[in-house]
Design goal:
The chain is an alpha/beta fold. The chain has a single domain, classed as 3-Layer(aba) Sandwich (Pyruvate-ferredoxin Oxidoreductase, domain 3). Helices cover about 40% and strands about 25% of the residues. The protein has six helices and six strands; from the N terminus they run βαβββαββαααα. A six-stranded mixed β-sheet has the order 2-3-1-4-5-6, with helices on both faces.
């Protein structure tokens, strides 16, 4: 099991990959995370993305590089944190995670993680059962990442979720974000 203490983020690069399948909102999640870190928390940040050959159902990923110092190379080299919402994403990107990196999975969608040393949360199932729509699993995962790492402040993430959530979904997305904070906090306190 992973260490339950908050992972400190120093002045060095901190590289994040949010991965899954097209349609899970991971590109939007990457944009939200980068904007919160850069515009409100005031850190240097870059965000890049990649889609599979199909828009929906194909592989999708968003990468975020964070540093207090200047970022000279905008793409990820060795991940400090990998979020995998599908088994395919897990299989494809796990090798990019550095030794001792933070590995977070959807515990119902990733049934064969390559290591037991991971944070497993049922993001999609929680989105359906607690919020009523699977599409907010991305925002639940952002809340969990925030709570476990401190890479972004809760205030910044909340403000950008309010701003970036599709019109009419703000309330559901804010509820999803709070759920992400809660499940990660409960994990740390268990």
């Amino acid at each position: 099991m992973p260490d339950k203490t908050k992972h400190a983020v120093g002045s060095d690069r901190f590289e994040i990959r949010l991965s899954g399948s097209g349609g899970q909102g991971l590109i939007l999640a990457g944009v939200i995370l980068a904007e919160a870190i850069g515009t409100i928390d005031g850190k240097n940040v870059t965000q890049t993305q990649s889609y599979g050959p199909e828009a929906r159902g194909g592989a999708s990923r968003a990468d975020v590089v964070v540093s207090k110092d200047e970022i000279y190379y905008p793409k990820t080299m060795k991940l400090d944190l990998l979020l995998a919402l599908t088994q395919e994403a897990c299989d494809t990107y796990f090798h990019d995670l550095k030794d001792g990196g933070i590995f977070m999975i959807d515990s119902h969608m990733v049934t064969q993680p390559p290591t037991p040393n991971c944070y497993g949360f049922p993001f999609v199932q929680l989105a359906k059962s607690e919020i009523g729509v699977a599409m907010v699993a991305n925002v639940i995962s952002l809340g969990a990442i925030c709570e476990l790492t401190g890479i972004v402040s809760k205030h910044a993430l909340t403000e950008i979720v309010k701003k970036r959530a599709p019109r009419g979904t703000e309330e559901k997305n804010l509820k999803a974000l709070e759920l992400g904070f809660k499940i990660a906090r409960e994990y740390k306190n268990a």
